[in-house]
Structure formats: C-alpha cells, structure tokens
Specification:
15 helices, eight-stranded mixed beta sheet, globular, alpha/beta, three-stranded antiparallel beta sheet, single chain
C-alpha cells in the first residue's frame, strides 16, 4: 500500500526541546532509568506550583455556566480588561479591550499571528539563538525565517548591524524575545530603541515575546518595547505559564498596539483566525484577572535569597568551575546557555553530544543548534531543580565533560 507521508511543510521544521533526545530519554525511563531533566521550563515538574489564590479561583469557577461554555472569540471581558490594565502599568499606550486576544498559551497566538501575516516568500527576522517555536511557525506559515545574531560577547544583546544587514524587500517583521530564552538576557532601553528604529525605517511589524517579564534578578527592570513608539505596529505576547507557574493552564494573551490604522486588514485576519478556533479554554481565562491583580509571588522567588535566585547563582558557579565552560550569567528567565570551548571540546554533532550525556550520566539537556545557533558549541539547561538536584545534575555534566576531554586529548 502507498505510505501516508507527512506534509512537505514540515521538511524544515524542528522543535528539539521535545525532539529525538527526549524520545531516547523516555525510552530509558521505560527501561527503569531515572533521568534528571534539564531540558524544558516545565516549572510544576520541579515543585513550583501556581499561587493558591489562582488555584482556588479556578476550582470555584469550574462548575459555573461561564466555565463550561464558549466565550467571545477574543476571550472574556474581565481578563482582557485586566490585561489592558497591565499594559497601562507597562506604559503601552492606546490599548483597549478589543486589542487583546486570549489564547491557549502564548504559543497558539504566536502561530495565529504568523499565519495571519505571511505569504510564501515573506521573511521574518528571528534571533539566533531563538526559542525554536518562532522558526517553526514562520516556516509553517509559508514564510522564511532569517536569523539575526545575538552577541555572546555583549551579554547576548541583539547585533543591530547584523539585523539591519538581514533586512530585504521581503522582510515583514522582527521577532524579539525579551527577556530571552535560551540566554537569560534582558534588553536595555537603548537596544530596544534601536530595534524600533529598524522597524520604523523598513515598516516592519514587531513581535515581542515577554513571557518572562517578571522573572528578573538583581533588581533588574523590564521595558516593553511597545511602550517606546506609537508609529510602529507591535504584537506583544505574555501569559501565566512562567511568572505564575501555570504552564498547564494554557492561559496566554496577545496585545496589538501602536500604528493599528495601517494594519486594519491584518487585524481582520487575526479576528478571522481567532473566530475559527472558537475561543481559548475558559477555565484558563478565568485565572488571568486574579493572577494579574493578586500578590506577585514571583517577586519572592527572584529576590536575593529566593529559590530561583539561589538556583541561578548555584548553576552559574558550578558550570563556570568546569574547565572550558563559560556562561553569561542570566539577568532574567529560567535558563542559561553555556559555551563549550571548541579547543577543549571538539564537538562536531551537538545532538550526538546530548545523546552521549544522556546515555552515560542520565542528564537531559538540549543542544544549542536546537535553538538555531549555528555552531555545535553551546547547550541550554534550566536551573529549576532544587539545589541538591541541581548540584547532582551539574556534577554529572562535569564528570561527563572530564571524560570527554580525556578521550579527545588522548
């Protein structure tokens, strides 16, 4: 019989955060091995649970008629109004309830926004390294992902000259991930203003992923790029997954702001796609107003001495003690993106490197090329495990790298 093939649209699509190495880890778990997973920011798996107030509101609302029914395609009024108020706190001007779309996590809305914008041959500028969803959804939307470099030597800031050099007549948009996944970088106002100017000069849409905008260390402050101009079109993405430890609730939002007049047709497309999926899950929507208006417990976790701050400091200290390993200390988010000196670790295939680490030490990480980094000399890990587990995991990585050095030196 003729085999049933996958769509050709998937030929250049990858998502190695849940890719082949994870499949191998699952197989090993089925065989009885215990794997330390540093591959994904699934906060609940590490005992970081949603605030009780959010959980209780969800429980109380579940039996109601509202929770059981469809909502407006953009979402319920009250949580969208809460997002409007949040935009006001972030100094994003001119946002009304009609500019807010609720989704099944920010991921659904990112895909929706690209599908509504792109035609075959359109290009989108995406950071390298990136969160690989962006590269994937641009390709699935018939667009062409074009990666601009983020510079490790300057704390993983976007290379504005490289960004400018990548703009062509086919470029439609720029993606920024701030705070950044996978590097943990936080972009200062000066850098954001330069990106706005690139968008302004070339009439590009700016897609701003701000899902970690409260997960900030050392007293850092986050600036929303959409607060810096009103003559550029911005789509800003956020949600409850990380700041509120509610990944499984799938409650996210997208805000359209800035020069909306020239985007009437595009917004019509967004409305059409929002209607086609009927609505986001209603119980998740009901958590948003409480989350944004309640006590911000993330502040305790990232404060000096807080759990996330302690784990970040520990992971950075342990990794940088390993010969040939360097790490830019994250200012934000839940990840770090260590560099393996190619002179010490001559890695040709970093996916194979991740396989070998998994097989020998039962530690799961994601190789750097999985984030569209061009060379096999980085990997990403999450610093979510408690300090004992984190110490054990990085100790295993250090042991593996020690043996790797010895093998390749010999």
């Amino acid at each position: 019989m003729k085999p049933i093939a996958k769509s050709s649209k998937l030929a250049n699509v990858g998502y190695d955060i849940r890719g082949p190495v994870l499949d191998k880890a699952r197989q090993m778990e089925e065989e009885g091995h215990k794997i330390i997973k540093l591959n994904i920011g699934n906060v609940a798996a590490f005992g970081l649970l949603p605030p009780d107030e959010i959980i209780q509101d969800m429980i109380r609302n579940l039996p109601s008629q509202v929770a059981a029914g469809y909502t407006d395609s953009k979402g319920l009024f009250a949580p969208r109004k809460a997002v409007v108020h949040y935009c006001q706190q972030k100094h994003i001007a001119g946002v009304t309830v009609d500019d807010v779309y609720l989704g099944n996590g920010a991921s659904e809305l990112i895909a929706m926004s690209m599908n509504a914008l792109l035609d075959a041959g359109d290009e989108v500028l995406i950071p390298s390294p990136d969160y690989p969803l962006y590269t994937a959804v641009v390709a699935l939307s018939s667009g062409t992902p074009v990666h601009y470099r983020c510079d490790e030597g300057s704390g993983w800031m976007p290379d504005i000259d490289d960004m400018k050099a990548k703009v062509t007549p086919c470029t439609k948009a720029i993606v920024i991930i701030n705070p950044n996944n996978p590097t943990g970088a936080l972009y200062p106002v000066e850098v954001l203003q330069q990106i706005v100017e690139v968008a302004r000069q070339h009439q590009l849409v700016v897609f701003a992923d701000e899902i970690y905008d409260k997960t900030l260390f050392d007293g850092a402050q986050h600036t929303s790029i959409a607060s810096l101009a009103d003559d550029v079109l911005f789509l800003t993405f956020n949600g409850l997954s990380k700041n509120y430890r509610s990944c499984g609730y799938r409650a996210g939002w997208m805000v359209v702001s800035g020069n909306k007049k020239r985007a009437k047709d595009y917004i019509e497309g967004l409305n059409m796609l929002a209607s086609m999926r009927l609505c986001a899950n209603t119980p998740g929507q009901l958590a948003i107003q409480t989350a944004l208006g309640g006590y911000q417990s993330i502040d305790d976790l990232v404060a000096p001495g807080g759990r996330l701050a302690r784990q970040r400091d520990l992971a950075h200290s342990l990794l940088t003690q390993i010969p040939g390993v360097s790490v830019v200390k994250p200012t934000a988010a839940l990840y770090m993106f260590p560099r393996l000196d190619p002179k010490v670790y001559p890695i040709e295939d970093d996916q194979q490197f991740a396989y070998e680490l998994l097989a020998e030490e039962k530690v799961l990480i994601v190789q750097g090329t999985g984030f569209n980094w061009p060379t096999p000399d980085h990997f990403r890990l999450v610093f979510l495990p408690n300090t004992d587990d984190l110490t054990e995991a990085i100790g295993r990585i250090a042991r593996f790298l020690d043996q790797y050095r010895k093998r390749h030196t010999a």
